[in-house]
Amino acid sequence: MIRAASAAVPALFLGGCQMVVMNPAGDIALQQRNLVIFATVLMLLIVIPVIALVGLFAWRYRESNKEARYEPDWDHSTQLELVIWAAPLLIVICLGAVTWTGTHLLDPYRPIGRIDRDRPVPANAKPLEVQVVALDWKWLFIYPEYGFATVNELAAPVDRPIRFRLTSSSVMNAFYVPTLAGMIYTMPSMETKLHAVINKPGDYAGFSSNYSGAGFSGMRFRFYGMDDAGFAAWVARNRAAGGTLSRANYMKLEKPTEKVPVMRFASVAPGLFDAVVNQCVRPGTTCMSDMMGHDAAGMKHMPGKGMPAQAKPEEALTGGDAGEAPPKNPTDVQQRSNASPSNPSTL
Fold it and tell me: Within 10 Å of residue 42's Cβ, how many Cβ atoms?
């Protein structure tokens, strides 16, 4: 009974857990899951036999087994060497090929080529662009196509490609919706990208997977996969919410706060995301892109500035460099004293 109870208690606590990573609702996350499973099974082809043989050898050649075959002079087997080296080598080659292919096909910067395994992305499909800003400690989502923004709430229609543009206001964070796609880091003054698609309607969790300070544990949001009608109603709700995310309001919003409830802004200041990336939301601040452009223009109009000077090729010295031809006889050289080469005693 004690053993049964000890096994039932963990099962009771784990009953509410969901293996979201192993049961995703987005095609990108599904491909990533398949890659993890394939790599794990491939490695288990070596791990399981090795563990089994360790137990087998320990049992067969135990001290009490007097019938075990004993060959103290044995030290080499060509067949065994082939098995020991060939099998892991083939697995490493296969695993490397699959990992290389998967890494390129699942590159977060690469636009997706299919909705799911059986449906490619239509040629006329327009991705839904979402601009993501990691704040302390909340998430800001801007929908430039529809002109509104939300805080800690994200939604997308089912089977429509999503193109995320991500940055951070102050410190590094990691944007992660396990059911949608892999995590992608957000960094201040930089923009990263993530392409994904959601294939099933539902209410999913999203959070920051990189520690970023005191409010990190509450830096979570909800991601909703909706049908077209539900997404249209969600868009209308945000447009009717009122409030404007102006640059002044953004500077108030970016101040550190914890456990922030969902917020909605019916309109957004033009170019706000680009200003966040270039660190020029505050009035009178020069954007980093303009600063770099001015530096590049200045270098273009100032040849040689900022570049190491190139050494000029040296030429061999000639007799003409001395001003006159060398004397034919040493006695012809004018001395600084009365000494002469022909009379060294006068020195």
Answer: 15
Which bin fits 324, alpha (ψ -120 to 50), beta or left (φ > 0)? beta
Please tell me which residue, 314 or 87, carries the higher pLDDT value. 87
pLDDT digits (tens, 9 = 90+) for 160-209: 999 999 999 989 999 999 999 999 999 999 999 999 999 999 999 999 99
The topology (CATH level 3) of 17-62+79-106 is: Helix Hairpins (1.10.287)
The whole model's pTM is what?
Answer: 0.75
Cβ–Cβ under 8 Å, residues 145 and 93: no
pLDDT tens-digit series, residues 311-329: 555 555 454 544 555 566 6
Q: What is the mean pLDDT of the chain?
A: 84
Distance between CA 146 and CA 234 in Å, rounded?
11
Where is pLDDT greater, at 226 or 339?
226
Residue type, 216: F
Nearest to 130 by CA among 206, 201, 203: 206
Measure the CA–CA gap between 96 and 343, rounded to whole angstroms: 87
Structure tokens, 225: 């996969």
- Least Cα distance to 160 among 33, 27, 29, 22 occurs for 27
CATH of 119-288, one of 1.10.1020.10, 3.40.50.300, 1.10.150.240, 2.60.40.420: 2.60.40.420
Domain ranges of the chain: 17-62+79-106, 119-288
* R_g of the chain computed on alpha carbons: 36
CB of 176 closer than 8 Å to CB of 28:
no
Q: In Å, what is the CA distance from 181 to each residue of 20, 34, 150, 252, 322?
A: 11, 13, 21, 31, 77
Q: Is the dihedral of CA 109, 29, 272, 235 positive or negative?
A: positive
Phi, psi torsion values for 92, nearest 5 degrees? -65, -40
Neighbours of 141 (CB within 10 A): 21
What is the model's pLDDT at position 150? Answer: 97
- DSSP β-bridge partners for residue 206: 221
Number of other residues whose CB lies within 10 A of the CB of residue 53 = 11
Lowest mean pLDDT across 260-264, 266-270, 281-285: 281-285
